[in-house]
Design goal:
The protein is of the alpha+beta class and 712 residues long. It has helices at 3-21, 24-50, 56-59, 63-83, 87-114, 116-122, 125-142, 149-177, 210-219, 223-244, 280-305, 314-340, 355-362, 375-380, 382-402, 465-483, 486-510, 518-535, 548-551, 560-586, 600-624, 627-650, 656-665, 667-676, 689-692, 696-711; strands at 178-183, 186-192, 194-197, 203-209, 250-254, 258-263, 409-412, 461-464. It contains 26 helices and eight strands. Helix 8 (149-177) runs antiparallel to helix 9, helix 10 (223-244) packs parallel to helix 12 and helix 20 (560-586) runs antiparallel to helix 21.
Length: 712
């Protein structure tokens, strides 16, 4: 110790002794003066270090030492004030304490920030991350204190710059130490145990290790983001490909400086297995192969990715394990667990079927907590897994049926073919009835004894093959609910409900041309009506065989409203499009005051074209829609033509010669009655036109007026 240092220490001791001998009031006054001096020196040190000007005297000054000395004096004064309490003295002491606390916080923040550059340069990345976190916490505390705005802004600006520098260094270190590369069909995961120099090739004093990297990432809340990136790479390029093709080349090489794990090989393709297509023995061998290669990958993660990491990083290790398992478990469940479940419900008591998967799960026990693994839970609830498997298989069958591009139609109802398999339980005909195939009506029109008036009669129309097969599927699946027992009855009932929901989801998108293709729109309308008809009594005859808990809730009536809505939505666009087309073709017939001899030829041509549009859609509707629906659709379209023609005829006063010409002019409209309004209801051969066409009586009145004028 030199002479100046001894003199400084002696002066400091003398100063402390003289301060203690002062009165309380004098001590408070001295503290107030010293606090202001410390505040000024701290502000000057912050500005000198971080602003554009420098002061050599202040640059080397550490305001934290001065604040610590003041803190000792403050404690001494607090003891004296506590001995002689006074409101004024306590208030002055509290003000000094608040000011001193702010100075200490700013001095500590300044000390942390000014050393970060050197810490990064020396390779102390963990220390620099801790300094950034501590500086951020103290800055948040300083914002609530009475301090000058200018030095606080300087500290905030420096904090942002230093934090960005630390994060940039962490990005460089992360990319250097853990790197995922791809070359052709080969993927590599390179892990370096330690980095010796920064991105400018300047050597660190201390090598940065994986433990330092994880610690710094955790301090700056970046460890989970980096872990998520690694989880995605490991799952997409290693675990999932190896699950489907465990024979894919996988190699691990290690040195003293790092390790590399690669998957794939140049010019070689591996066979991808479909586990659902394998028999049980092949599937068990496939699971054993997956366990072997997964063990290699997980061991690499445990031994190399977390090389020489202590227990402080166990939370990162567990987080990655849980994320990896969450990524692979759905695939394991669908492609390995479900195929292992027996097809017979009576064989579920033998849990030996789950042994291969339990052994596969054991490879994860060091990475994932046992209580979060799912195979054990699935083994304890095999019945639920069996139920889910059956339901999935059933719905997959329905989805494949509905997604087919089969545009064929079949005729049901009325005197159509015998295809309505759901009516046999409630009708007098069918396989077990007396009517059989030779009865007058098909099974779709067989009525129960209490339906003598035909209220449940389904009219003759065309439906899609998909709707027919859906009804057959529903009938067969409802039968499973009776045969497999109470444990699975609810599954089959809900599978039927989901199958009808699949129709509403898939068919409109499958037939996307509903707004322009009248036939498809009419077929979807018929499908919805047909399905609604069967939903009213679906499974009613089997309810007594269902569990008591299922009888009250197992109904399909609530689905009818959605099918009715879909029926309207499928029909409305094509009808609106046809009405707009008819109005466009009518042309002059939609305008007032044009009827004269000069334009009669053009008016007749337009009327023929408009009636042709109606006739074209009417023929399609007549071939596929039920008679009553067909007549209602026809009435809506004919009303457009008849209404405009009747209004134009009512506007003119004509002579006898011109009257006969106008009657001949509207002859195509009158011909619609004989050509289109034909039905087979009861004993009639022609439908009452006025019942379906509201404008028809008005047209007939104008025709009679013109005929009377022509007769005169």
């Amino acid at each position: 110790m030199n002479r100046s240092q001894r003199r400084s220490r002696r002066e400091g001791a003398d100063s402390d002794q003289s301060f203690e001998k002062q009165s309380v009031t004098s001590q408070l006054t001295t503290l107030e003066r010293l606090v202001e001096e410390a505040r000024a020196s701290t502000y000057e040190a912050i500005n000198s270090h971080h602003r554009d000007f420098l002061s050599i005297r202040v640059y080397t000054h550490d305001p934290l030492d001065e604040a610590a000395t003041l803190n000792d004096k403050y404690e001494t004064t607090s003891t004296f004030v506590a001995a002689t309490p006074s409101p004024d003295l306590i208030e002055r002491l509290d003000n000094i304490g608040h000011s001193l606390k702010a100075i200490v916080r700013m001095a500590k923040t300044h000390a942390n920030l000014k050393d970060i550059d050197d810490q990064i340069l020396h390779g102390d990345i963990a220390v620099s991350a801790s300094s950034i976190v501590e500086a951020g916490e103290m800055l948040s505390e300083i914002e609530d204190m009475r301090v000058s705005e200018q030095p606080l802004q300087v500290l905030h600006a420096q904090f942002i710059k230093k934090r960005a520098a630390v994060r940039a260094e962490l990005e460089y270190l992360s990319d250097e130490m853990i790197r995922v590369g791809e070359t052709g069909c080969v993927h590599e995961l390179n892990v370096t145990y330690g980095v010796m120099s920064n991105y400018d090739n300047v050597p660190y004093e201390n090598a940065v290790t994986l433990s330092d990297l994880f610690f710094a990432l955790r301090e700056l809340d970046g460890v989970r983001t980096r872990a998520d990136m690694l989880v995605t790479a490991l799952a997409d390029h290693w675990l999932l490909p190896l699950l489907r093709a465990p024979s894919t080349p996988l190699s691990v090489s290690r040195t003293k400086l790092g390790a590399t794990m690669s998957i794939g090989a140049f010019g070689r393709t591996s066979t991808v297995f479909v586990p659902s297509a394998l028999d049980r023995d092949q599937l068990v061998q496939h699971i054993a192969d997956v366990q072997r290669v997964w063990t290699t990958v997980l061991q690499f993660v445990r031994d190399d990715l977390f090389h020489e990491c202590d227990d402080d990083h166990s939370d990162v290790y567990a987080y990655m394990g849980q994320k990896l398992w969450a990524r692979v478990w759905p695939i394991v469940h669908d492609e390995l667990l479900v195929p292992l479940v027996p097809d017979n419900v009576d064989a579920l008591a033998d849990v030996q079927c789950m042994v291969p998967l339990l052994e596969l799960e054991n490879a994860w026990t060091e990475l994932v907590p046992t209580d979060t693994l799912s195979v054990r839970n699935a083994a304890r609830s095999l019945l639920q897994t069996y139920v889910s498997k059956r339901r999935s298989d059933l719905l997959t069958t329905v989805a494949s049926i509905l997604a087919s591009d089969d545009a064929n139609v079949v005729v049901v109802g009325g005197n159509g073919p015998v295809i309505d398999v759901l009516a046999e339980h409630s009708g007098k005909g069918g396989k077990n009835g007396k009517g059989g195939k030779g009865s007058k009506s098909g099974k779709g029109t067989m009525l129960p004894e209490e339906d003598a008036d035909g209220a449940l009669h389904f009219p003759r129309c065309s439906i899609s093959v998909q709707a027919q097969l859906l009804v057959e599927f529903a009938r067969e699946t409802i039968g499973f609910a009776q045969g497999d027992g109470k444990r699975t009855a609810a599954t089959y009932v809900h599978a039927v409900r989901d199958a009808f929901s699949l129709y509403r989801c898939l068919m409109p998108s499958q037939w996307s041309a509903l707004s322009v293709d009248a036939k498809r729109a009419f077929i979807v309308f018929n499908d919805c009506t047909y399905l609604s008809h069967h939903l009213t009594a679906l499974g009613h005859g089997l309810r007594e065989h269902w569990p008591r808990e299922l009888r009250a809730s197992a109904t399909f009536v609530d689905l009818i409203a959605s099918f009715r809505t879909l029926a309207r939505e499928s029909m409305s666009p094509v009808l609106q499009r046809t009405r707009d087309s008819v109005v466009r073709e009518l042309g002059l017939w939609t305008q007032r005051g044009w009827l004269n001899e000069a334009v009669l030829d053009d008016a007749e041509r337009r009327l023929i074209v408009a009636c042709g549009c109606v006739t074209q859609v009417a023929h399609t509707a007549q071939a596929h829609l039920p008679s009553r629906v067909y007549l209602s659709v026809l009435g809506l379209l004919v009303d457009v033509v008849v209404g405009h023609v009747a209004r134009r005829l009512s506007e003119c006063v004509v002579s006898d010669t011109r009257a006969r010409a106008l009657v001949r002019l509207v002859a195509p409209v009158l011909a619609l009655e004989s050509r289109l309004f034909v039905c087979t209801l009861a004993s009639q051969t022609r439908a009452p036109v006025a019942k379906y066409c509201s404008e028809w009586d008005g047209l007939q009145m104008q025709i009679r007026r013109l005929s009377t004028a022509g007769t005169r």
